[in-house]
Request: fold
Amino acid sequence: MKALTTPDSIMSLEGLLYLPRFQTKDGNRSVDLRRIVYLSAQVNYTIFHLEDGESVITSLPLSFYASLLEKYGFLRLHKSSLLNLHYLSQCHILRFEMLILPSGHSIEIARRRKAKLREMMKSC
Reply:
């Protein structure tokens, strides 16, 4: 994982989103949103989990990215996680309490988010 400290502006350009304090191993500060599987909170940091297995840690809290990314098809499942709905159809749900990702990672589903998730599952 790579820690970041340089802020950037938020801009969208042809499917790429320039996120503040986001940098991949290649040094780019833009990311195709389809590459992000989910985001997880770790105290005041956010970890981006990408489809190729790469993890990028940023120094902004998950709440900042949640407010930015929810309009791009991300769903807050728990106070500590944000899922890209593009991957929802590939996930397995255990009694609407736990979401199992194709990679084997699991995300807890908050009690208050279960209804929204059920609604999303019907539309997939």
